[in-house]
Amino acid sequence: MLREKINYMFDVIEKLLILQDRDRHIQRVKNELAHIEPERQALKAKATGTQASLEAAKTRVQKIESERKRLELDVEAKKSQIEKYALQQFQTKKNEEYRALAHEIETCKKAIVGLDDQQIELMEQTEVAQKEVGVANQAATEARKIVESQIINLGSREENLKKELAELESNREQIAEAVDEGARTRYERLVKNKGTNVVVGVQHGVCGGCHMRLPTQIIVSCRAQSEIVTCINCGRILYYTRDMDLAAVD
Q1: Could you tell me if 126 and 64 are in contact, meaning their C-beta atoms sit under 8 angstroms apart?
Q2: What is the domain-level CATH number for residue 125?
């Protein structure tokens, strides 16, 4: 009778361990699946970031070019003023008015020199900015290729994980139903609170789950294998196999 009881409890624990192993696999796959979308979004953000850098570099070139064209218009306006003042000089007969116009012409010429200097500086800035566009464009192109490849790999990985999860879940209920109802109920309740590490062994007199020292009576009961034994500290289901050291650590 005792032997039958021991065999029965051994069978219960064995089936619980099989169920726990399946649940661990299922949880692992679910965790991996949960990380797929964040990884995908991170990759897209990376590609978007390099593209944004490229667009910013292009915008800088456009702004510099726009400013240079504005300076060109200013130069043309100053030249038109010079022509206008020169014509007025030719038409005037008053020395004072002539000198005033000459001063305005000289002022316009100086302004043109300053505008020319600014254009030269902008041309240098344009050259640097265009190089930056080239670098940013190369970086964006490379990033896009890498991201596209990685996203494709993520998609394949996601599909494989979904298939694996479907296979793992397909007969999970059958595995669960094979477990003694009372033990299964206790197991399911523990899993909800503690995750998929609820059927644990005893090593050196401590619980394999919470790692707290166990009373001698609990260890003896665990060794007897005549009933389901639980940890008095965390409530996990304890089990014994011959290769375990049940002696409490001194």
Answers
A1: yes
A2: 1.10.287.1490
- Residue 10 maps to a domain: no
In a domain, 179, yes or no: no
Helix (H) or strand (E) holding 230: strand 229-230
pTM to 2 decimal places: 0.71
What is 11-72 written as a DSSP string?
A: HHHHHHHHHHHHHHHHHHHHHHHHHHHHHHHHHHHHHHHHHHHHHHHHHHHHHHHHHHHHHH
For residue 216, what are the CA distances in angstroms to 224, 229, 240? 12, 13, 14
Q: Write out pLDDT tens, residues 161-171.
A: 999 999 999 99
Beta strand spans in 50-188 (E): none
**215 in a structural domain:** no
Whether residue 237 is contained in a domain is answered as no
